[in-house]
Design a protein that fits this description.
about 0% strand
Amino acid sequence: MTAAPAASRRAVAFILATLLVDTIGFGIVIPVLPGLITQLTGEGIADAAVHGGWLAFAFAVAQFFCAPVLGNLSDRFGRRPVLLLSLLAFGVDYAVMGFAPTLAWLYAGRIVAGMAGAAFSPAYAYMADVTPPEQRARNFGLLGAAFGAGFVLGPALGGLLAQLGPRAPFFVASGCALANFAFGCVALPETLDPAHRRPFEWRRANPLGALAQMRRHPAVLGLLGVMFLWQLGHQVLPATWSFYSMFKFGWSPVQVGASLAAVGVLMMISQGGLTGPLVARLKERRAAVVGLVCGATMYFGYAFATQGWMVYAVMLVWLLGGLTYPSVNALLSRQVPRNAQGELQGAVASLYSLSAIAGPPLMAHLFSAFSAPAARVYFPGAALFCAGLLTLGALALLLRSAPVEPAAAPMEAA
């Protein structure tokens, strides 16, 4: 059972605002991270990209282990306390990174951020709590639109703040997260009432345990495989985009921020305006097929672009590529009961983290190897080409999957 309409609207509005503010804080630091790494290490941009990949790896390892824990905790104690703890941890993390005197401090900060970022699982469970199954693709799309809006404001602001130095955006991001935490303490409602909670079990609150539980729902496993391959390919953007665009096109941090802001605008249009009507017409499975085809086209287009303006032309494909994540996640959420939504989203987040463990080092090393002066084959777009192949693999797996029935599994006993 979902919340009453008025309460549901308030809950959706708050979680969207929370994700927006968090994404602004995350996006602010992307354009300046290469500069901060080179400042701390004294290395060139190609070598700094490798460090950037390993920083993402540290983030992902922490998230991999914490996501199922936080998802299961939210099924036991409710979504509110887990989300608030995450916001507080983000605020502390960005401050640590802003003061970082050595590269080791950056790694410590990314580990804290990975633990806090695992709260995306209860955030999606929160949305599932207050949304009927037939509307979840639309509302998951709204989460993507909030994420896109944050990427409009965050990277653009980060590019401007970079003029004050590579550390300034981290302090602004910290302030955003802490302000959101303070607001949440007052305004964030709980959406999972005690009658629908279930006991916390450590055997289920670990990556393998959470994924093993999903075997109880046969239609889930194939969809999780689709989600993993899609997310693994998507790691190419946070891992290499700043480095790739600066290296190949000679872009400044302001230009990098502008390109990410453009992606954010397209995400807002796609997931905020197009996902609902298109999924209603196509249904989730066909919408996911369209999204995967367009996603692969986008990656290949980026890989072979020879001028900066071509990047913006290729970006238009993302208007339909953005259908993938909300459509597949909506299919997944239909397969499990309400008191296992946190566990499901914990499993999804664990797969995302697993992709982020393998993806950034892989993509960063591909970029570094194929763009180095001594490279046998010079192809700076190799990592993006790899992402396109992975997306085609996700499409093949989806096409092999049986049609998914809309009915959810029965409620688990408390």
